[in-house]
Design a protein that fits this description.
globular, 457 residues, six-stranded parallel beta sheet, Rossmann fold, 4 domains, Alpha-Beta Plaits, alpha/beta, 30% helix, 15 helices
Length: 457
């Protein structure tokens, strides 16, 4: 597929890397030559220096025969105009754009085909807010990924020493929770994936990914965590779009405080929030955090626009007694920097956004894509089409599927029923399958497997 990406920042660069590694013909446009040179050093892509919304720049990038335009510059208006030009002048088949301003997002009619023709709108702030909300609503987990319209979730949890499952085999879960249906998708021990067979004995600090129906997740998490307790007291550092949206989501069911350094902004969000206590101050002010009883806080969420402020304030909050600390970290190098520190969860907006982009780019009928472990692994929801003659999966049992070794089927949504993977289940057309891959490079083989033959088309 021929794809043009507008913007070589964190999202654009990471998207270019994912798509180039999967064999796509990728061109990246940006006004900053240094960013483009950095990408070309390790990727087989074309780059064009220029204004992303200028027709001459798009022509230079090869817009005439491009299959898809992905507009992810930092400017909403440039992204919108570029999509308009791509449609009006060059009939580009598919256009994806990052839109941040809530004023634009509040009017969906603005993005109709006869207005600003954008096929898929990506709102990073909305995606990150959703992600952090899920982490808070489901305590003690490292990741929460939604499938089947959020009827099922794939959750990552670390095994606590002396928890019920420390030293137990996976099949012991059947005795501990006989009424809970689930599947272990993968286990990571010392950063390496190990086969999730029923006889595998779990150890403290193993990272376990399991798939279950949403309402049964809490019961499962409790057997891996020694002192499971729900989160009640939330402290949000940063009153920007994400901080405000997060407070609005949580204030009805949690005790929420938010701190914002800009006095005018603090007053504005205080008027819009009903039960949240809004504080004007510095997120790194230890005395203020102590005064606000940070030691009684269940989750400290650092969501400012500054990586360094997020990292330092989260570390400070942890040192002062906060139970859990989450930090938004935009730069990939900074994410690696905080691994093994007192920050419990590093949230990467780029990785979250890329998953949504990839769901609209992948071959076959891919519904959802989730990037895991900083892009090293992946979980997808994909739909089976065709019949036994035109499909390599329909009419076959799960045992007969020629999946890569790193791939595991977790569950199937058939009409309105969730079936957890068993070797003898025969795949039917229209089935939605959740597939977990511990090796991201195997995604291409899975997508090819689910493509139908020309007879079906």
């Amino acid at each position: 597929m021929k794809i043009i990406i507008l913007g070589a920042g964190q999202v654009g660069g990471s998207t270019a890397e994912s798509l180039a590694n999967e064999g796509n013909d990728v061109t990246v446009i940006d006004q900053n030559p240094a960013l483009l040179e950095r990408l070309q050093e390790h990727l087989d892509i074309r780059t064009v220096v220029g204004h992303a919304a200028h027709p001459s720049t798009l022509l230079k990038a090869g817009i005439k025969d491009t299959d898809m335009l992905i507009a992810v510059t930092h400017n909403d208006e440039i992204n919108m105009i570029a999509c308009q030009i791509a449609s009006s002048l060059f009939n580009t088949p598919k256009k994806l754009a990052r839109i941040r301003a809530t004023d634009y997002l509040a009017y969906p009619a603005l993005f109709a085909l006869d207005a600003v023709p954008i096929d898929v709108i990506i709102s990073p702030e909305q995606l990150v807010t959703d992600y952090i909300t899920h982490l808070i609503e489901q305590p003690e987990v490292l990741q929460v990924l939604t499938f089947f319209g959020d009827r099922a979730r794939l959750v990552a949890v670390k095994v606590d020493a002396e928890s019920i499952m420390d030293g137990k085999a996976i099949h012991d879960l059947l005795d501990i929770l006989p009424k809970v249906q689930m599947r272990i998708a993968a286990i990571f021990r010392n950063e390496s994936a190990i086969p999730p067979g029923g006889k595998i004995t779990l150890q403290a600090d193993d990272e376990v990914f399991f798939l279950a129906e949403k309402h049964q997740i809490s019961e499962l998490v409790k057997v891996f965590k020694k002192d499971y307790q729900p989160y009640q007291r939330i402290f949000i550092a940063g009153g920007g779009q994400i901080g405000k949206q997060l407070a609005q989501r949580l204030e009805k069911s949690h005790n929420v405080k938010i701190i914002e350094h800009n006095e005018t902004r603090a007053r504005i969000i205080a008027e819009d929030l009903h039960k949240t206590l809004v504080l004007h101050g510095d997120v790194g002010d230890a005395n203020l955090l102590k005064e606000e009883n940070i030691h009684k806080t269940d989750v400290f969420c650092a969501v400012t626009n500054d990586d360094e402020a997020n990292i330092l304030s989260a570390m400070l909050a942890k040192r002062l007694g906060a139970r859990k600390t989450f930090s938004i970290i935009s730069k990939a190098s900074h994410v690696e920097l905080v691994e093994g520190t007192s920050i419990d969860i590093a949230v990467s907006p780029a990785q979250i956004t890329i998953g949504t982009l990839l769901a609209h780019i992948r071959r076959g009928d891919v519904i959802t894509v989730h990037s895991l472990r900083q892009g090293a692994a992946e979980a997808i929801e994909i739909v089976a089409h065709g019949d036994k003659q035109t499909s390599k999966v329909v009419g076959r049992t799960l045992a007969e599927l020629k999946l890569p070794k790193s791939a595991t089927v977790g569950a199937i949504l058939r009409k309105d029923k969730i079936l957890f993977a068993e070797k003898n289940i025969v795949i039917e057309t229209g089935d939605h399958l959740v597939i977990f891959l511990t090796e991201q490079q195997d995604v291409d083989d899975v997508e090819k497997l689910f493509q139908v033959g020309f007879e079906f088309l």
